[in-house]
Design brief:
By secondary structure, the protein is of the alpha/beta class. The protein has 12 helices and 10 strands. The chain has an 8-stranded parallel β-sheet. It has a two-stranded antiparallel sheet with strand order 1-2. The chain binds NADP nicotinamide-adenine-dinucleotide phosphate (NAP).
C-alpha cells in the first residue's frame, strides 16, 4: 500500500517499546526482534521524540542506517508550538532520515490548527521529511487540517484502532474520501486483544482497551480471535493484523521479542475470509462507539504537557 508517495507493506512496526520508559524491555532481545522483522519483509518503523526522550529514535536510527529500504516515521510533540522545526531537526539528527513526519497530537485549543499545519509544511520545504501527517486527530479536526494544508498533502492520521477500541471508524471512510491513510496505533490493544492476561507495564495502566478486555464483551472478542487463529493454524496476533488490513488500516504493532516479530511477519502473508472479518466485526461491535483517546490533550497547555511527559517517563 502507499502512504503518500511512500510504498509500504501491509504491516509496519511501532517503536515506543524502544524508549524503555513505560515498558519492561530486554534491549538485546528487542534489537534482535526489530532486525528479524526489518530483514523479513517489514519495511516501516514508527517512533517519536517523546519515547524515552529520544532514546527510541536513537535506537531506530542505528537500525535503519544499514537498511535504506526501511521507511522511517516519527512524531514531533510540539510542546512549544512555535518551535516545531527545531524538534524535527533534532529527530532527523537522531534518526539519520525521516520519511514521514507526524504531529503527535492536536495542539491545545488556543493554538490555531492551520498555523501548526503550515509549520509541518515548512519541514518539507526545509528538506527535513518527505511526507507529513498527523496523529490523534478526530474526524472534525482532520477535515479542518486537510483544508489548512496548502502546499503538501497530509498523508496520514495515526490513531488508536483495535478490536476493543473502534471509535476511529469514521476516519476510515474519510480517509478514502480525502486521501489519507489511517495508521493504527495499539493494533493489538497492547496485547489484550490476543491473550487472556497481559503484563503490568506502565504503558497499559490507562489504556481503556486493556480494561475492556476483562469485561464479558471483551472476553468474547479475544475468544473469537483465538478461535479463528486455531482454525487457520495462525497466531492470534497475525489474525488481528490481517483483520486490520481487511478494514483498510495500517497497523504498527509494538514488538518486544523475536516470536512477536515472526508473528508480525506472518501477518503480511495471511488474508482473512469475509466471514472471518465479519466474525471479529460482530464480536467487537460494542466497541465501535466512543471517542478517540487521549482527547484531553487539547485542554492542557504545552508547558504542562511537557512537564507531565517528563514526570511520566514515556
Ligand atoms: N500516536 C500515538 O499517540 C501512539 C500511542 C501509542 C502507541 N503508538 C505507536 O503504536 C505502536 C504500537 O502500539 P502499542 O505498543 O501501544 O500497542 P500494541 O502494538 O497493540 O501492543 C504492543 C504489546 O503487545 C505485546 N505483543 C506484541 N506482539 C505480540 C504478539 N505477537 N502476541 C502477543 N502479544 C504481543 C507486547 O507486550 P508483551 O510482550 O509485554 O505482552 C507489546 O509490547 C507503538 O510502538 C507506537 O509506535 C502511538
Amino acid at each position: 500500500m502507499k502512504i503518500g508517495g511512500l510504498e509500504v507493506g501491509r504491516v509496519g512496526l511501532g517503536a515506543w517499546q524502544a524508549g524503555g520508559g513505560a515498558w519492561h524491555v530486554d534491549f538485546s532481545e528487542l534489537k534482535k526482534a526489530y532486525e528479524y522483522a526489518l530483514d523479513n519483509g517489514i519495511n516501516f518503523i514508527d517512533t517519536a521524540e517523546v519515547y524515552g526522550n529520544g532514546r527510541s529514535e536513537e535506537f531506530v536510527g542505528v537500525l535503519v542506517r544499514s537498511r535504506p529500504h526501511v521507511v522511517v516515521a516519527t512524531k514531533v510533540a510540539g510542546f512549544h508550538w512555535g518551535r516545531m522545526l527545531k524538534s524535527a531537526e533534532r529527530s532527523r539528527r537522531r534518526l539519520g532520515r525521516v520519511d514521514l513526519l507526524q504531529l503527535h497530537w492536536p495542539p491545545p485549543f488556543y493554538v490555531p490548527i492551520c498555523k501548526v499545519i503550515r509549520d509541518m509544511e515548512k519541514a518539507v520545504e526545509a528538506g527535513l521529511t518527505a511526507e507529513i501527517g498527523v496523529s490523534n486527530f478526530d474526524l472534525g479536526l482532520m477535515e479542518k487540517a486537510k483544508t489548512c494544508a496548502k502546499k503538501y498533502e497530509l498523508v496520514s492520521d495515526q490513531v488508536v484502532y483495535n478490536a476493543l477500541h473502534r471509535a476511529a471508524e469514521p476516519l476510515l471512510e474519510a480517509g478514502k474520501r480525502l486521501g489519507f491513510v489511517v495508521i493504527a496505533w495499539s493494533p493489538l490493544a497492547k496485547g489484550a486483544a490476543v491473550k487472556e492476561a497481559v503484563g503490568r507495564d506502565r504503558a497499559r495502566a490507562l489504556d481503556p482497551a486493556v480494561k475492556r478486555a476483562q469485561t464479558p464483551e471483551g472476553r468474547r472478542v479475544v475468544a473469537t480471535i483465538r478461535r479463528i487463529a486455531e482454525r487457520r493454524g495462525a497466531s492470534p496476533a497475525a489474525v488481528v493484523l490481517a483483520w486490520h488490513a481487511a478494514k483498510g488500516t495500517y497497523p504498527i504493532p509494538g514488538i518486544k521479542n523475536t516470536t512477536q516479530a515472526r508473528e508480525a511477519v506472518e501477518a503480511t502473508r495471511l488474508t482473512l475470509t469475509e466471514g472471518e472479518v465479519r466474525e471479529i466485526d460482530e464480536a467487537s461491535a460494542p466497541f465501535v462507539a466512543g471517542s478517540l483517546w487521549p482527547g484531553v490533550m487539547r485542554v492542557i497547555p504545552g508547558f504542562l504537557q511537557k512537564l507531565a511527559f517528563t514526570l511520566a517517563r514515556v
